[in-house]
Amino acid sequence: MIYNLYCRLALTIYILVAYAFYPDFHLAVDAVPHSLYQYLTQSFLAGHLDLLVQPSQELLNLPDPYDPVQNYKLRLHDASLYNDKYYLYFGPLPIIVFHIPFKLLTGFYPSDGLAAFFFLSLGFMVNFFLIIKIKEQYFPRISELQLGLMGALLGFANGAPFLMSRPVVYEIAIASTFCFMSFALFFLYKITQKYKTKDIILFSLCLSLCVAGRPHFVLICFCLLPALFIYLIKHTSKNRFTLITALFAPAAGVGFMLALYNYVRFGSIWNFGHIWQLSCNNIKALHKELSNLGKIPRNLLYSSYFYFLQPFLIVKIFPYIRLIWHNCRYHIDNDYYLEAIVGVFITTPFILLVLALPKLILIYFRNRKKTAPLLWFLLFTSFVPFITTLFLLILPFAIQRYQVDFIPYWVLLAIITFWLYEDYARHSIHFKIIKIIFIVTAVMSIYMGFSLGLGYWTTL
């Protein structure tokens, strides 16, 4: 038992150290702000919702200050310009839970690398602890060596190394959402085991806070919260008022605060400020494309290829692979935006095992009633990657870092699918072949996940 604990601790420390130094040292602080989230921290502490950085008069005097050609040397890149003030459209979640407390405690601003490290490390540890609990409760025969492999998958095949290769404002927003979704899934697992009101409240809070990092995660809230409510009504003796309060009050509170935050800044509860963003692309034109529903079939076709099947380049320099690089203004059909990206079926092919999950769930519901709480957890968890994947596929762009909105949860589901399969067909020849394929592709995925960030970093 002590040996197992030491092995798990050693793996955790190794992954955290890898994050901290990947591909450069990230645990730095700054005395003065110089990045967007640091600027927003400064503003919040000064009682402002707009950034204290002032747009230049030259920018404001441009015929179209949102035109990337005109504002190229004048803009604060990726800030939102509204009523002659700079705002940040990226969600305030990292500021509230990390930047402001860190600044108040230390007097320094955390660097972007430190913020990304904090959220990704915490998210990984929560996920690793979750699969340890699942393994010990439902799959005690799984070896410690295999558990270590699964932990490495959670640490390196989840897209985290890529985010750490260039941690700036975009990566921090994604990392913070990953962190809180990891907490949400942990409390969701506890709900399916014991139905405690405390866990329901914490699940709702963590899930809804994801919207403060990545607004489209509100789609998950709209689907998952009602589904869980129906489940709890049928499986617990708690009265409906208690369930409604515990499940929906935290989400409603977070939603109200975000709506108020948007309304005070932009006069609309729905506007996070993205339409006013100053970028290397014309964001207003992009929003017109988003409103063109006729482009959705085209977007689905392109995005399915780029997010799932796009290959990588093989090069002569370590780590011998890198993404196919596109600059900021690269477009297809003049209106489909593309950055460097490689498909997840190429980098993490073992997640294809998730295709067996529906059949396994049916088999286990029919024959192994004791696993029902775990099966319900898997069903609810599948909402997360399914909804985020579908949402990203209909958009007119494909970006590598956005894969972290769904790939960690496909990885988690694939791991548990493998364990279900092993428990069900351990001695069959068919499973032994599947096991070899899974282990080989898992090791390959760890290498790919660790290497892609290095390949991306060397092109910057």
TrEMBL record:
Alphabetical UniProt keywords: Membrane, Transmembrane, Transmembrane helix
Keyword S-adenosyl-L-methionine on entry: no
Ranges annotated as spanning the membrane: 86-102, 114-132, 169-189, 201-231, 243-264, 305-325, 337-362, 374-395, 407-424, 436-457
Highest taxon of the lineage: Bacteria
UniProt keyword Cell cycle, yes or no: no
Protein name stated in the entry: Glycosyltransferase RgtA/B/C/D-like domain-containing protein
